[in-house]
C-alpha cells in the first residue's frame, strides 16, 4: 500500500490474524517497529507442507482420539501414515466443523444437519475451534521464530502483548462472536479476563477482504495491478477520488458480500453503504450437491456403494470442481482402474463420464444466491447505488459501483467467475478477481484492518432495540386490540407491555464514534427498587420497517446481550413522587446506549449521578 505511513507507536508490537475457514485456514502477521512502514507477511510454511515450497493455507481438519485429544491437524492429518494410524486406533476425523457454528438466522433450508459431518460425541464446535486456533498459533510461532533473525527472542518478548485479529463470516454476530472470544481464551491466544480480551479484535471476512483489495489492487496506479476483468472493462470515474466497490468473498462455507463507497483524496477513507450479506453457499455445498447427484445416478450401479460414492466425491472436490469451465464440455471422475466398467452408467476404464450441464447445475444455487444478494444490496443501499450522493453541505458526486472483486478460495473456480460475469445482476458492474493470492485475502486484509483501519462507517444489518412498555393510546387500533393486556404503572398511567423500543434501525449508517440512545424510565415503590437496572438488547431480523410488538414475530427477535448497571448510589438521592391519586413512587431515568459503528456491537447504560447545578457566578470562578 503506497500511502501507508510509518508506525507511530513507541514500542515494537506483533499483530497476528487468523482466517479459520470451513475447508482451509491461514494466518498472516505484521511486526510493527516504530518509525518503519508496516509490511504484512503470511505464514507460508506449515508442517507436512514444507516440500511444497510454501503454502498460504492448510486444511481445516483435525483427528481426535477416543479421549478427545488432538492427534493431528492441518496438512499433517492428510499424511498416509497418519491416516493409517487413525484407522488402526479409531481416531475420529473432524472436518467442515465450522458449519456447526453457523448463525441460525441465515437462510439454510438447503442444509440438513445430516449433510454436515458430525462432531465426536462430547465435543462441541467451540472446543474444536479452540483446538484448531491453538494449532494455528503453534504454526505461526514456529514460522516466525524460524524466519526472522533472533526470531525466538523476538517472539518471547512480544507473545504476551500480541494483538490478534480473528475473522468470521458477515452473518455471524453476537452469539458467534462470543463463542470465538471464548475459544481464543481456551486456545491460549490471550489470558482470561478483560485485559486479554482487549487484545482480541473481531472482523467480518467481507471487511477483511475489502482491506486486502484496497491495499493490493485499488491503490495501485488506476487499477494497474493485474486483475482478471471482463472484455468490456472501461475505466470511467464519474467523480475524481470516489469509487463504489463491492466485495464478494467466496469461501468454503459462506459467500460474504459487502458494498462500500471510497474516497481516495486527500487520503483513503471507506464507508459501508448497504447492509452486509452472507449466504451459506460456499464451495462445500457444490460438493454436497455432487455427492447427492452421484448417489442418485449410481443407485443401481455396482459402483454405487457408500464407500465408492465417498471416493468419487473426494475426487470431484479436488479435481473436477476446480477444473470445470464450460457446461458444454463433458467431465470425468477418475476413480478406479481400467477393469472398472459399467457402460450403462457412463463408467469406462475406471472413469465416470458426466455431462457438463449436470455439473453446471451443481453451481447454480451458489450463483443464484450471490446474484440475488447483490441485487438486494443494490435495493437496500443506504446510499443508492448509481445515483448522486451528497458528501458534504456543498459538494455532490455521483458514485457508481464500477467494480466488484471476487476473492476467496471459491473464487478460483472459473465457472463461478464467468457465470457471475454473465449474470444480469452484474450487467453494470465490472467483476474482477485479483491475479493471485486469492486465498490470502482475508488473513492479509485482517492485518491491514488493524494497521490501516479504513472503514469509518458501517450499516446496520438488522434493527437493534430493547423490550419496553409504552403508554396506552385509545385512538390507535393496535392499542385497542391489546387493551386486555394493559397494566397501570406506579405513576398511574395505563401501559402496554411487549413493545419494542428500536435504537438503531436496519439500514442505518453509523460512524464509529456515533452513539445511539433510547431514553427509558424505571419505577419502584421504594428507592431500593431503582438501585439496579437490567436491559436486554434484541435484534429484529423481520421484514417490517418499524417493528412495534415483539410477541407478534417471536422468531424474528433474538437476544444479543444483556446489560447490567448498579444505580444504587443514584437511587439514594431519588426524590419521592406522588400520583394524582396520592400513591407514592420513585423513578430513575436512564438511557440504553449502542455503539454500532465498530466491528462488534457494544451496549451501555447511562444515567445521571451526583449532578450539581451551579450558578453562573460559580462557573466563572
Helix content: 25-40%
Provide the β-strand percentage band.
Answer: 25-35%
**In DSSP terms, counting alpha (H) and pi (I) runs of 4 or more, how many helices?**
14
Class by helix and strand content?
Answer: alpha+beta
The unreliable regions are 221-239, 384-398, 615-621
Multimeric state: single chain
Most strands sheet: 9 strands, mixed
Give the overall shape: globular
What key phrases describe this protein's structure?
621 residues; alpha+beta; 9-stranded mixed sheet; 6-stranded mixed sheet; 14 helices; 32 strands; 27% helix; disordered C terminus
List the helices and strands and how they pair.
Elements: E1 13-20, E2 24-32, E3 41-42, E4 58-59, E5 62-64, E6 70-73, H1 80-89, E7 92-94, H2 125-147, H3 151-158, E8 163-168, H4 174-186, H5 194-197, E9 200-204, H6 205-218, E10 227-228, E11 242-250, E12 255-263, E13 269-272, E14 277-279, H7 283-297, H8 306-323, E15 331-334, E16 347-348, E17 351-354, H9 356-380, E18 388-392, E19 395-398, E20 401-407, H10 414-422, E21 430-434, H11 441-452, E22 455-459, E23 463-471, H12 477-481, E24 487-488, E25 494-504, E26 509-511, E27 516-524, E28 532-540, E29 557-566, H13 568-571, E30 577-578, E31 584-595, E32 602-607, H14 616-620
Amino acid at each position: 500500500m503506497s500511502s501507508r505511513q510509518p508506525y507511530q507507536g513507541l514500542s515494537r508490537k506483533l499483530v497476528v490474524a487468523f482466517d479459520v475457514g470451513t475447508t482451509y485456514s491461514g494466518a498472516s502477521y505484521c511486526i510493527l517497529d516504530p518509525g518503519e512502514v508496516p509490511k504484512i507477511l503470511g505464514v507460508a510454511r506449515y508442517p507436512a507442507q514444507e516440500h511444497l515450497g510454501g503454502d498460504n493455507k492448510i486444511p481445516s481438519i483435525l483427528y481426535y482420539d477416543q479421549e478427545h485429544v488432538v492427534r493431528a491437524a492441518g496438512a499433517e492429518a492428510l499424511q498416509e501414515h497418519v491416516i493409517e494410524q487413525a484407522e488402526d486406533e479409531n481416531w475420529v476425523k473432524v472436518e467442515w466443523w465450522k458449519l456447526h457454528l453457523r448463525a441460525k438466522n441465515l437462510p439454510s433450508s438447503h442444509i440438513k444437519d445430516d449433510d454436515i459431518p458430525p462432531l465426536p460425541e462430547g465435543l462441541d464446535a467451540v472446543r474444536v475451534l479452540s483446538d484448531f486456533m491453538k494449532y494455528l498459533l503453534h504454526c505461526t510461532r514456529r514460522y516466525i521464530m524460524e524466519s526472522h533473525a533472533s526470531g525466538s527472542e523476538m517472539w518471547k518478548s512480544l507473545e504476551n502483548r500480541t494483538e490478534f485479529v480473528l475473522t468470521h463470516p458477515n452473518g455471524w454476530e453476537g452469539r458467534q462472536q462470543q463463542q470465538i472470544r471464548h475459544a481464543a481464551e481456551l486456545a491460549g491466544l490471550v489470558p482470561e479476563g478483560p485485559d486479554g480480551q482487549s487484545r482480541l479484535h473481531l472482523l467480518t471476512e467481507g471487511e477483511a477482504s475489502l482491506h486486502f483489495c484496497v491495499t493490493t489492487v485499488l491503490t495501485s496506479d488506476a487499477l494497474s495491478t493485474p486483475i482478471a476483468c471482463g472484455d468490456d472493462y472501461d475505466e470511467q470515474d464519474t467523480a475524481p477520488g470516489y469509487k463504489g466497490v463491492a466485495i464478494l468473498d467466496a469461501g468454503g462455507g459462506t459467500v460474504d458480500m459487502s458494498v462500500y463507497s471510497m474516497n481516495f483524496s486527500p487520503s483513503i477513507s471507506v464507508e459501508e453503504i448497504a447492509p452486509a450479506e452472507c449466504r451459506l453457499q460456499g464451495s462445500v455445498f457444490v460438493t454436497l450437491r455432487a455427492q447427492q447427484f452421484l448417489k442418485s445416478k449410481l443407485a443401481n450401479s455396482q459402483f454405487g456403494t457408500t464407500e465408492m460414492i465417498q471416493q468419487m466425491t473426494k475426487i470431484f472436490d479436488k479435481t473436477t470442481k476446480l477444473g470445470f469451465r464450460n457446461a458444454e464440455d463433458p467431465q470425468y471422475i477418475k476413480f478406479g482402474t481400467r477393469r472398472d466398467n459399467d457402460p450403462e452408467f457412463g463408467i469406462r476404464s475406471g472413469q465416470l463420464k458426466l455431462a457438463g450441464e449436470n455439473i453446471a447445475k451443481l453451481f447454480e444455487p451458489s450463483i443464484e444466491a450471490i446474484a440475488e444478494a447483490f441485487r438486494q444490496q443494490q435495493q437496500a443501499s443506504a446510499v443508492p447505488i448509481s445515483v448522486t450522493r451528497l458528501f458534504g453541505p456543498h459538494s455532490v458526486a455521483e458514485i457508481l459501483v464500477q467494480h466488484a472483486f471476487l476473492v476467496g478460495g471459491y473464487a478460483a473456480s472459473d465457472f463461478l467467475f464467468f457465470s457471475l460475469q454473465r449474470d444480469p445482476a452484474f450487467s453494470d458492474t465490472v467483476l474482477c478477481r485479483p491475479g493471485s493470492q486469492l486465498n490470502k485475502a482475508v488473513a492479509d486484509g485482517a492485518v491491514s484492518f488493524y494497521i490501516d483501519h479504513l472503514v469509518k462507517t458501517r450499516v446496520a444489518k438488522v434493527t437493534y432495540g430493547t423490550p419496553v412498555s409504552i403508554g396506552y393510546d385509545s385512538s390507535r387500533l393496535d392499542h385497542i386490540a391489546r387493551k386486555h393486556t394493559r397494566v397501570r404503572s406506579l405513576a398511574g398511567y395505563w401501559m402496554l407491555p411487549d413493545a419494542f423500543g428500536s435504537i438503531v434501525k436496519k439500514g442505518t449508517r453509523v460512524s464509529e464514534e456515533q452513539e445511539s440512545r433510547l431514553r427509558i424510565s424505571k419505577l419502584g415503590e421504594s428507592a431500593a427498587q431503582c438501585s439496579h437496572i437490567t436491559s436486554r438488547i434484541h435484534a429484529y431480523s423481520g421484514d417490517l420497517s418499524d417493528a412495534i410488538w415483539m410477541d407478534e414475530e417471536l422468531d424474528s427477535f433474538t437476544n444479543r446481550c444483556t446489560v447490567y448497571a448498579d444505580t444504587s448510589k443514584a437511587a439514594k438521592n431519588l426524590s419521592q413522587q406522588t400520583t394524582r391519586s396520592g400513591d407514592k413512587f420513585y423513578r430513575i431515568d436512564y438511557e440504553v446506549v449502542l455503539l454500532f459503528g465498530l466491528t462488534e456491537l457494544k451496549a451501555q447504560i447511562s444515567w445521571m449521578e451526583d449532578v450539581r447545578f451551579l450558578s453562573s457566578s460559580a462557573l466563572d470562578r
